[in-house]
Every structure is written in C-alpha cells, then in structure tokens.
Design a protein that fits this description.
Layout: E1 8-10, E2 15-16, H1 17-25, H2 31-38, H3 51-62, H4 83-86
Helix pairs in contact: 1-2, 1-3
C-alpha cells in the first residue's frame, strides 16, 4: 500500500519516490534500470514529466552528476500494420 505522504514522481504510472529510492538501493543505478524496476517513464508522457525527478534522485543517492545521467531509452509504441498500408496504390 502506498503511503499518502510519499510523493508520486511518475504520474502516468503512479510510481512514488519511495519506490524509486528502493529500486536504486536494490542496484538500479541509471534511469533505464529504474524504469525496468518501477515502470517510471513508461506512461503516456513517455518520461517528459518524470525524467528530471528520477535523474535528481539517482544523482542524490549515487553521487553521479546530473550531466552524467542519460535520459530513458526511448522505445515508441509499435503496432503491426499490413504491408499494403505502406505500398502505393496502383491504377
């Protein structure tokens, strides 16, 4: 159960600061590892809202400068489409 006083860092996935800190304590040393452990950055905003907050927490807990913390690896949502959608129509 989430603590009501625990701030939500990733609003899209409702990931709290405590969850992010726990992931870092368990070895998540970069934003992609935090993302895999908590789903922070996987929501509709695709990390635009939470990246700076996650990076700040990582920097604070690990001592890494913010300039050395890379953004989340972007993986846009993909849907299969029929090949005929890509082919030009012939007359």
């Amino acid at each position: 159960m989430k603590n009501k006083k625990d701030p939500i860092i990733c609003r899209c996935e409702e990931v709290t600061e405590d969850e992010i800190r726990e992931a870092i304590r368990n070895g998540a040393g970069d934003v992609d590892a935090v993302k895999r452990a908590t789903r922070a950055g996987m929501g509709l905003c695709q990390q635009h809202t939470c990246y700076s907050l996650v990076a700040k927490i990582i920097s604070e807990m690990t001592g890494k400068p913010l300039s050395k913390i890379s953004p989340f690896t972007k993986r846009p949502p993909v849907r299969p489409i029929p090949a005929k959608t890509l082919a030009p129509e012939s007359d």
